[in-house]
Amino acid sequence: MRKNELPTSPISVDSLSILIKETIESTSELARVAVRGEISDLKRHSSGHCYFTLSGRDSRISGVLFRSDAASVLKWPQTGDEVLVGGRISTYPQRGTYQLYAKRMMPLGRGAADRAKEEAMEVLSREGLFDVAKKRPIEPYPSRICCITSPTGAAVRDVLKVSGERNRSVDVTIIPCLVQGLEAPDSIVKAFSLVKGLSVDTVLLVRGGGSRDDLVPFDDPDVVRAVASCPVPVVTGIGHQVDTTLADMAADLRCATPSEAAEASVPSSKAMFSLLDHKLYQLMKAALSGVERSRGNLEYLKSRLDRLVTRSIYDGSAKVDLLDKELILSIKSALSTQKTRLAELSAGLFGVSPVSTLARGFIACRDGGNIPIKSIDQVKKGDLLYLDLVDGVIQCEVKSVEPIKRGELSYGAGDL
């Protein structure tokens, strides 16, 4: 078909609209765009969607920010604000127009940026993300830190240089991310999500200097929440001394520059050795002082023990002497009592003893086997008997044995 020749087969408006839509959406340059312009018309629909017109010097383009994405914009955009909008270009066939389907809107310029920051600060403050009581101390002697920043910027070089000069034993892990532009907030949040899988003591979030607009990603609510929810302490070094971002406010420690952040996170090996020497000196001094105190206490206790032992021996000796005297008196008293008792018992026993009976004139008779003779049935004529008297023994021979009749008691001459 020639250049000016019309097609022989016409197509419908719907088909043409679909063709235009497919052609635009298949163009890679239009599938992902970042457009800078001024808001000339802004309407918030009751459905939650946000409709706007973005104007340039000689042209304009309509745009829409759907409710799911408009919530992150809050209320700060106003007509006349210069903004940076990220999204895709497509058509709206029902009206025969093309428009910008936005996913993110960032303020440019002091006025819009300040309003966006104030609104985000109010929301995040209610969430308690800036509470000073929640800030954690920075690990004084870390073994490993990680740095979230651009892998090609000056900030990463400053961090590596300072950390290497201060202490080479501290490992530094770089988590690369974007630090400016529309995609920077999502990139920073993703970098923080990787920290959970690392064994690190401190996280650095840094970037070099730039314009105030370059700091807008660090005021993004999602970035601030990522900083506040990081499992380890966060040190920021955004690179601006006069501007404090919301990420700085949520961090555990805010530094003015990346180099300062590295100094705050990595201890100086020289200072550590100096501190160790000082601590060793203090320890030795304390040990010597403790030994001297212990020696003095030991001498005091020894002296006190000597006095106590001497006093105890003296008191014990006096008590032993007293007890000895009391024991002697007690023994003498007991002996006297027992002696008297023994005399009484002896007198009583003597009264009933055989000796007492013999003394009264009675005789005890026994045979050669010392068996007492109690009856004539125990002897016969010719037996030898022994008669015990009070003062001696008589040996005699039995001449005869005669029984005594009942009622008679007489001894015949020559019976013994």
UniProtKB/TrEMBL annotation:
GO BP terms: DNA catabolic process
Subcellular location: Cytoplasm
Domain Exonuclease VII large subunit C-terminal intervals: 129-346
Keyword Electron transport applies: no
Domain OB-fold nucleic acid binding: 12-105
Entry keyword Membrane: no
Gene Ontology CC: cytoplasm; exodeoxyribonuclease VII complex
Pfam families listed in its UniProt record: Exonuc_VII_L (PF02601), tRNA_anti_2 (PF13742)
Keywords: Cytoplasm, Exonuclease, Hydrolase, Nuclease
Taxonomic superkingdom: Bacteria
Catalysed conversion reaction: Exonucleolytic cleavage in either 5'- to 3'- or 3'- to 5'-direction to yield nucleoside 5'-phosphates
EC number of the protein: 3.1.11.6
GO molecular function term, any single one: exodeoxyribonuclease VII activity
Top EC class, one word: hydrolase
Function: Bidirectionally degrades single-stranded DNA into large acid-insoluble oligonucleotides, which are then degraded further into small acid-soluble oligonucleotides.
Subunit structure as annotated in this protein's UniProt entry: Heterooligomer composed of large and small subunits.
PANTHER family for this protein: EXODEOXYRIBONUCLEASE 7 LARGE SUBUNIT (PTHR30008)
Family: Belongs to the XseA family.
Protein name: Exodeoxyribonuclease 7 large subunit
Organism of origin: Dethiosulfovibrio salsuginis
